Amino acid sequence: MDTRSYTDFSITVATYVTKYTGIWVPRNAAEKLQRKISMIYTAFVLLYGIYVNAVDIYHSWGDATHCTFVILNTTCISMTTVKMIILNFNRAGFVDALCYAQRHFWHRNYDYEERLIFSKSVKYCIGYVIFGVASLQIALSGYVITPLIENVGRNKSNRVLPVNMWVDLPLYDTPYFELMFTFQVISVYVIGAAYICPEIFLCLFNLHVMGQFRILQYRMLNFWNVESKEMNAVMYTDHCYAALKKCIQHHQLLIEFCAKLEQVYTMSIFTHMAVLSLLLCFDSYEIVVANTSASMRIIFLFHGVGSLGQLLMLTYTSHFMMEESTNVITAMYLGSWSTLPMNEVGKSFRSAMKFVMIRSLKPCYLTAAGFFPLTLGTFTSLLSSTFSYFTLMRQSFMRSDEE
Question: How many angstroms separate the CA atoms of 250 and 244, rounded?
Fold first, then answer.
């Protein structure tokens, strides 16, 4: 799999994340060894995170604030593990979609106006990657900075790690404490990379598909503009029909690509949607209700904002991909088809045009395991369910305190 024919900052970053977590398909023996090491280490870190947090929950049961924090971490890691398993299982489909995009969309064979549309999609992708990576770094840095601040002024006997370790070992003595601290920090960032890995290429794909539908609309609106004194009505009709065939081929490529994305990502999206509302509920509780330190509130604030931002980008890109796919109807209808003569080619043109418009009535979108489409309505619905879960959780803890 080679993406050297076209690349930009967003594709480079997404490629690095997938390589870092072991999803990428190697091109040679060295990359094959690198992928095995990355995949084994990522799997080990995810299982290690689930185990350590589960043990911490067991020993901290009764402390609602701390248990909520640890449950949030465990849920995040468990969700990430499931999504990584799904993506690894569909890795061949992911590679097929990536090569498909490289072969048909990620190139420079566009005219001036089409290059402008394509460059706008690239700018959106770069902005998304910058936002995603920056928010991830801010959220993860809280897990590192908080224990560093709490360790100021403490002696060796009561130092704290990013994640509590309930083992009968001298982990808080030098140099074991420093080694364990470094290992946990590296593990946190590996988990963070795995957390965004399934969605980072998906959002890039969605943004580029959205741009490709706009390029298709531009072509449908502009193949009529031909000025030639030697072209009569019959030749003009033949030209328009040939151009429409190319647009239909482009439309079919986009429909096929969206079907590939649905096949690869539908279960991953379902897992993310099913768990994210619970995660946001935990974030809201720790920010608003829990009696915790300011540094912990900042961790949950950045985690909640980052999760909301990731959800917004996922639903936003899928929603507008769906809208642009239906806008093909308008672009097709606004053409000068009514001026074409009613000869055999003209009738064939109108018949093909009707089929394009009928097919565009069924928009291209992604779903969560086929249960519901991924749109901005999904975003608002999930926020509503998050508020309901938060209210129920808040009332439950208040009732427990009163008793």
Answer: 10
**Any residues with CB less than 8 A from the CB of 120 and at least 6 apart, and which?**
211
pLDDT winner (highest mean) among 164-168, 224-228, 311-315: 311-315
In sequence order, the 6+-apart residues with CB closer than 8 A to the CB of 181 are 147, 161, 162
Q: Give the three-state DSSP class for 373.
A: strand
Three-state DSSP at 161 gives coil
Asked whether the CA dihedral 135, 140, 144, 146 is positive or negative, the reply is positive
CA angle 352, 355, 359 (to 5 degrees): 145
pLDDT of residue 252 exceeding 80, the answer is yes
What are the residue ranges of helices labelled H in 60-157?
A: 64-89, 91-104, 112-150
Distance CA 301, CA 307 (A): 10
- pLDDT, averaged across the chain: 85
**What is the model's pTM?**
0.88
Instruction: Judge whether 357 and 329 are in contact, CB under 8 Å.
Output: yes
**Could you tell me which residues come within 8 angstroms of residue 285 by beta carbon, excluding any fewer than 6 positions away?**
68, 390, 393, 394, 397
Cα distance between residue 332 and residue 177, in whole Å: 66
Task: Return d(Cα 25, Cα 99) in angstroms, integer.
Answer: 11
Using CA atoms, how far apart are residues 15 and 350, in angstroms rounded to an integer? 44
Closest CA to 362 of 249, 265, 254: 254
Nearest partner of 57 among 47, 45, 70, 76, judged by Cα: 70
